[in-house]
Amino acid sequence: MDTTTQTAVQRKKKALSCIQPTGIPTLGNYLGAMRNWVTMQDDFECAFAVADLHAITVRQEAAQLRKQIYEMFALLLAVGLDPDKSLLFVQSQVPSHAELTWLLSCHTQFGELSRMTQYKDKSAKHADNINLGLFAYPSLMAADILLYQPDYVPVGADQKQHVELTRDIAERFNNVHGKVFTVPEPYIMKSGARIRSLQEPTKKMSKSDENQNAFISLKDDANTIMRKFKRAVTDSEARVCYADGKDGVNNLMEIYAAITGNTLEEIEAEFAGKGYGDFKVAVAEVVIECLRPIQTRFDELMKDKAYLERIMKQGAERATFISRRTLNKALKKMGFVLV
Predict the structure, then answer these.
(1) CATH number of the domain bearing residue 122
(2) Active-site residue among 122, 228, 246, 280?
(3) Do the domain assignments include residue 64?
(4) Given 12, 67, 120, 207, which residue is catalytic?
(5) Is 280 a catalytic residue?
(6) Identified catalytic residue from 204, 230, 329, 333
(7) Cα 72 from chain centroid?
(8) Is the alpha carbon torsion for 293, 218, 142, 64 positive or negative?
(9) Are residues 226 and 110 in the same domain?
(10) 257 in a structural domain
């Protein structure tokens, strides 16, 4: 077999990402991750899931959760995820996730779970509801990943801890029962911009920020986006340049660079002699134009629930078929009787 033929038959590497339906993603989520997911579809065999089971570790109102699941699924389609290229599904519609979670829970150590950063953070915020699901969620997260045998899990540097625990669980299971799971690698998306809060630019932009002016939601209209950028924190120097101590301006420059493709040097030259007022308006304008086609497509999709449910059903059927093979293999290795 010649080299060309060998290359042709080599399978694409697999990658998987999940996103919770707890609020609309921010500009930071889009530029840092979701936009990269779209381009990854051409280079990887991708799976993307709306991780709605993870959402209930914190109390949810039923009607609102249902609405958010539809919205998140629609947004994934609106940003450019293609169900003909990738596996796209809602987690709770695939029973294998909950089933494998129990098997993996019995291979996850108490001490490992107690060290997880997200458990500590959410326990502090929801001291009246520190439930088992909140403590044991990494076992569900490991099941989400391992069911689809991915080679890579795209994450930000701050989420690497989750993938490392999934690797530990997979290796422990494989060592005890024989090879079942692919041990995935974290895929740190270096090209993803790390967008900061518009009000506290030393912090990451977050959809859960209590200050509505701190983040740009993917659903924010043009007037809201312009208002939030005009209120963005800068400094007293009034010079558009990237430097230590200019966190607010640096953040705005990184947003402008991520959307326009211009270098920081080019941005500095473009706005030489201009004040922050002009720069904030320019940043807001490119963001508005960047989000416009996503918002238009999102609005169209939300008016067609039948289409969303049809794509959900197709994705759930495919995901169930793929994940069931992995689950059955794990069950057999552990000694369960399958009939």
Answers:
(1) 3.40.50.620
(2) 122
(3) yes
(4) 207
(5) no
(6) 204
(7) 11
(8) negative
(9) no
(10) yes
Q: Name the residue range of residue 237's domain.
A: 212-300
Verify that 252 and 311 share a domain, yes or no. Answer: no
**Does one domain contain both 229 and 111?**
no
Count of domains observed in the chain: 2
pLDDT along the chain (339 residues), means of 10: 52 94 93 93 96 93 97 98 98 98 95 78 73 88 97 82 93 97 88 84 91 96 98 93 95 96 96 94 98 98 98 98 98 97
pLDDT, position 11: 84
Q: What is the residue whose two structure tokens read 């983040």?
A: 215
Q: Are residues 241 and 262 in the same domain?
A: yes
The tokens for 278 are 């002009």
Is the domain of 79 the same as that of 190? yes
Is 120 one of the annotated active-site residues of the chain? no
Known catalytic residue at 204: yes
Is 203 inside any structural domain? no
pLDDT of residue 194: 82
60 belongs to a structural domain: yes
Task: Give which of 21, 41, 47, 35 is closest to 145, Cα–Cα.
Answer: 47
Cα separation of 256 and 243, whole Å?
16
CATH number at residue 249: 1.10.240.10
Q: In whole angstroms, what is the distance from residue 172 CA to residue 137 CA?
A: 18
